[in-house]
Amino acid sequence: MTVLTCACGFEAKGDSPYQVEAAMWHHAIQDHADMLKSMTVDMLEQWLVNKDKQLKAGA
Q1: 50 exposed, middle or buried (CB, 10 Å; 0-12, 13-18, 19+)?
Q2: pTM for the structure as a whole
Q3: What pLDDT shows up at residue 41?
Q4: CA-based Rg of the chain, rounded to a whole angstrom?
Q5: What CA–CA distances, in Å, run from 9 to 21, 42, 58?
Q6: Could you tell me which of 7, 3, 5 has the C-alpha nearest to residue 20?
Q7: DSSP string of 6-47, one letter each residue
Q8: pLDDT reported for residue 59
Q9: Exposed (0-12), middle (13-18) or buried (19+): which is 9, by Cβ within 10 Å?
Q10: Which of 4, 2, 1, 13 has its CA nearest to residue 51?
């Protein structure tokens, strides 16, 4: 089981990193759309790198 946790406490869980990443994107778009809109490309890229590191560490 792979798990990613959002800063708000939401946990995305799945059998593969792909499922978890998809669940986290769904959560981010649904619950944090304003935050995503306010992020620069560099900020979003750094967020993705950090989430990728978390996924690899949990694999």
Answers
A1: exposed
A2: 0.78
A3: 93
A4: 11
A5: 16, 24, 17
A6: 3
A7: -TTS-EEEESSHHHHHHHHHHHHHHH-HHHHHH--HHHHHHH
A8: 53
A9: exposed
A10: 4
Give, as one character, the DSSP assignment of residue 58: H
> Digits of tens for pLDDT over the chain (59 positions)?
889 999 999 999 999 988 999 999 999 999 999 999 999 999 999 988 888 888 888 75
Q: Which residues, 6+ apart, have CB-to-CB distance to 35 below 8 Å?
A: 28
Report CA torsion sign: 33, 38, 40, 42: negative
- CA separation (Å) from 47 to 15, 21? 22, 12
Helix (H, G, I), strand (E, B) or coil at 59: coil
